[in-house]
Specification:
The chain is α/β, with parallel strands linked by helices. It contains 21 helices and 19 strands. The protein has an eleven-stranded mixed β-sheet, sandwiched between helices.
Length: 575
């Protein structure tokens, strides 16, 4: 059987290659679930102030086990915990979890309606300016700003659940199931926090088999919530997940993973599942929110770039590919360029050079070799920038991919170190932006996040086209001059698919997480960054002290202060 027959359009299918893990003993699982059932009403009745106090205690617990958490993740991914690469595990693990806990605690101390820095009405919609929110953020992220766009027809209201509770209309206690992702160590606990705070539900979190080793760290980090009976962690395979999904006391489900897993939960498996899907008759009718990946595009708007600009943006794009060995749902997978850009070839050569110098990474995620082989069979002209081994998928650039809506590289999430290049024949930057928006919306599978790279002069001269592109991109997150992964890490922004996917065409999923301002009816989040970011961002794989910076930022985010800021600045400014 050809490798190609394993694939269909969409995100990768991880279930068949998932590692085997020992499941939580059934009696222990039932005991944990029963405790949540008994305590679900108590959570609903718990005051925002007491919730804030619990979350603040979780911050201290997270700090206490942060070193061990990072070391465990590094061991699993064959990373030296004392190397700069370990910064990835600090930033995408304890640091962002601590930031999430702190921001939700602040929201609870504000009664579920924390003050938004600025709200404006732009045309027919409201836009909430959510970042920077204080002096420290303005200092650390000079020139950055982030917005949450509200769906048309809605006001910028916040914390609907908390407003209703104040009038005595609060929901009954419910238990939510969170099916954790296996790639990034903060996803599971942060998804759980969103269920607890945004949806008022106690949570049972099932680890993914890929990172089941994180169970004790998540449990210890959230020990105050565990001891109160509001949160529990279990482990197991797909069968354990299936039993929990169908458990009568589980009221809702959130999953970060594959669209195939979503469909298996919603419609079941086998020939009958496809028939149910066509008839729009789901097997499981519980509410399910999900973040299910995407073929993430990076749109490079042609402009008059210097040699330094080209080098910087080549490092930025390469880092979007290299981070976490490219096992990210927001890893850059499609590079959209202009054929008529005089600097196109220089940029591609710089990108190849930077990718070639990136150290090889262990392909720790299931199925990476098979997915990679399928891409090579579709694209024998791919430029392989390193040695392929049993444990390594080399960084690979696929040139001149047609921008067709049925093109393999645009319809299948590689979830490994592959980057496809698409070049459009547009006459000028304005036409390019319009055409790139169409290709990103219609040809690239999924709607999770995307990136735009544009220099200030081009953005100014073609301001209307630029604004139309941001408005027109149907993505839950749009990042300008920054990797869209920062939208995940800011927490004040929303993270999730663009609204509107049906069960029958779920693509990147439904619903959002994070959303630390508890904004009702968000459509998407937009991040603007300087064209050349300084100091070097810690998510660049070329950052020489990312591990030291990640540790310092974790302690700073726990309790921002001048004393904790000084080590951060000292490390950042010497990098």
């Amino acid at each position: 059987m050809s490798t190609l027959t394993f694939f269909r359009e969409g995100s990768a299918d991880f279930s068949k290659d998932a590692p085997r893990v020992s499941a939580t003993p059934e009696d222990e699982l039932e005991r944990k679930l029963q405790c949540l059932i008994e305590r679900r009403d108590a959570w609903v009745k718990l005051s925002p102030l007491k919730r804030a106090q619990l979350l603040e205690r979780c911050i201290e617990h997270t700090l206490q086990i942060s070193e061990e958490w990072v070391e465990a993740a590094c061991r699993a991914k064959a990373i030296d915990p004392n190397s700069p690469t370990a910064g990835e595990e600090w930033l995408a693990g304890p640091m962002v979890t601590v930031r999430n806990l702190r921001l939700f605690a602040q929201a609870m101390r504000a009664g579920g309606e924390p003050a938004i820095p600025k709200i404006e009405k732009r045309g027919e919609r409201f836009i909430c300016h959510v970042f920077p929110g204080n002096f420290f953020e303005r200092l650390l992220f000079g020139g950055f700003r982030a917005e949450v766009w509200i769906e048309r027809g809605h006001s910028p209201s916040q914390g609907e659940i908390y407003r209703r509770k104040r009038t005595g209309e609060g929901p009954p206690g419910r238990v939510a199931l969170v099916l954790g992702a296996g790639n990034v160590s903060s996803i599971g606990p942060m998804d759980a926090l969103s269920k607890l705070i945004l949806e008022d539900q106690v949570v049972i979190l099932k680890t993914n088999p890929v990172n089941a080793y994180l169970e004790p760290f998540w449990e210890e980090a959230f020990r105050p919530l565990v001891e109160e009976g509001f949160f529990a962690v279990v482990r197991g395979d797909a069968e354990v997940g299936k039993r929990l999904c169908h458990h009568p006391e589980i009221a809702s489900i959130h999953i970060t993973g594959s669209d195939r897993t979503y469909e298996a939960i919603r419609f079941g498996t086998g020939p009958e599942a496809e028939q149910r899907k066509r008839r729009k008759e789901p097997l499981l009718r519980k509410p399910i929110t999900a973040e299910l990946g995407a073929v993430t595009p990076c749109i490079v708007v042609p402009g008059n770039w210097s040699v330094e600009d080209i080098r910087f943006q080549a490092e930025q794009v390469a880092s979007m590919v290299v981070n976490n060995a490219s096992f990210n749902c927001n890893a850059c997978k499609v590079l959209i360029l202009s054929k008529r850009w005089p600097l196109r070839q220089a940029f591609l050569e710089a990108l190849e050079e930077v990718l070639a110098m990136a150290p090889p990474r262990k392909a720790y995620y299931p199925g990476a070799q098979a997915r990679y082989q399928a891409f090579l069979e579709h694209y024998p002209n791919a430029s392989v920038l390193g040695e392929r081994t049993e444990e390594v998928v080399p960084w690979t650039l696929i040139p001149n991919v047609p921008p067709r809506s049925d093109e393999y590289a645009l319809r299948h999430e590689a979830f490994c170190g592959v980057l496809a290049e698409v070049s459009l024949d547009a006459a000028n930057p304005g036409e390019f932006m319009a055409e790139a928006t169409r290709v990103a919306n219609e040809s690239c599978w999924g709607t999770l996040s995307c990136t735009i790279l544009i220099d200030p002069e081009t953005a100014r001269i073609h301001a209307r086209s630029f604004e139309a592109m941001i408005e027109g991109l149907r993505y839950g997150g749009v990042a300008v001059n920054s990797w869209s992964g920062l939208l995940y890490g800011l927490v004040v922004t929303t993270w999730g698919a663009y609204p509107g996917h049906s069960d029958e065409d779920i693509q990147s999923g439904r619903g959002v997480v994070h959303n630390a301002y508890l904004i009702d009816h968000p459509e998407k989040s937009v991040l603007h960054a300087p064209f050349r970011i300084w100091p070097k961002p810690p998510w660049f794989f070329t950052h020489p002290r990312a591990h030291l910076l990640g540790r310092a930022l974790t302690h700073f985010e726990a309790r921002p202060s001048w004393n904790r800021l000084i080590p951060v600045l000292s490390i950042a400014l010497r990098s």
